[in-house]
Design a protein that fits this description.
The chain contains 8 helices and 3 strands, in the order αααααβββααα. The protein is globular and about 55 Å long. Helix 1 packs antiparallel against helix 3 and helix 5 runs antiparallel to helix 7. By secondary structure, the protein is mainly alpha-helical. The longest helix has 28 residues. It folds into 2 domains: about 60 residues, Fe,Mn superoxide dismutase (SOD) domain (Helix Hairpins, Orthogonal Bundle), CATH 1.10.287.990; about 100 residues, minor pseudopilin epsh fold, CATH 3.55.40. It has a 3-stranded antiparallel beta sheet with strand order 2-1-3. The structure holds fe (ii) ion. Fe (ii) ion (FE2) binds next to helix 1.
Length: about 200
């Protein structure tokens, strides 16, 4: 039952210049750790709760901190050091099933990025932008969730954190610049693995 902070598969400065070392360090060691700690506390309280009322009172904490843990675990693996600065493979969409699906549903990667960024920038308050697989149609679709709600309507392929803490230290209030920059560090290899699992129907 005890949840733990998963390590990032790269160093805190590995996403520079697109996401700063300070943001990555705080985001992982402080914010994500806090969700893990609070989720563990809520789960422990839930296990001890003896009445429906006590259990119901814990629902919000379980959802918020559980969602925060799920979303940030996914986000950490959604990113990779950028090929644009010769650090890794981030931002590179190779020929393959995911690229074919993106072209089928969005025409081009550039078009997907434009639609994703416009939809995600329009989130009021804090939330997440998602590229996901519709479990009924297997189509790739863009959607958003509020606060730390995890994506339940689709199987997540790419998730982008648009809470201000994800970008404010570097981009201040210019969310659009953050959203433009982040495509340079998207881990499309991870995204393709998730896409294939989703369309394979094995674990939606
Ligand atoms: Fe975050």
């Amino acid at each position: 039952m005890s949840n733990t902070l998963p390590p990032l598969p790269y160093a805190y400065d590995a996403l520079v210049p697109y996401i700063s070392e300070e943001i990555m360090t705080l985001h992982h060691t402080k914010h994500h750790q806090t969700y893990v700690n609070a989720l563990n506390a809520a789960e422990a309280s839930y296990a001890k709760a003896s009445t429906p009322k006590e259990r119901i009172a814990l629902q919000a904490a379980l959802k918020f901190n559980g969602g925060g843990h799920i979303n940030h675990s996914l986000f950490g693996r959604s990113l990779a050091p950028s090929a644009a600065v010769n650090k890794g493979t981030g931002g590179v969409l190779k020929d393959g099933p995911l690229k074919s699906a993106i072209e089928k549903y969005f025409g081009t990667l550039e078009n997907l990025q434009k639609q994703f960024n416009a939809t995600t920038a329009a989130i009021q308050g804090s939330g997440w932008g998602w590229l996901g697989v519709n479990p009924s149609t297997k189509a790739l679709e863009i959607t958003t969730t509020a606060n730390q709600d995890p994506l339940l309507s689709h199987a997540p392929v790419i998730g982008v954190d648009v809470w201000e803490r994800a970008f404010y230290l570097q981009y201040k209030n210019v969310k659009a610049d953050y959203l433009t920059a982040i495509w340079n560090v998207i881990n499309f290899e991870e995204a393709e693995a998730r896409y294939l699992e989703a369309v394979g129907g094995s674990k939606l």
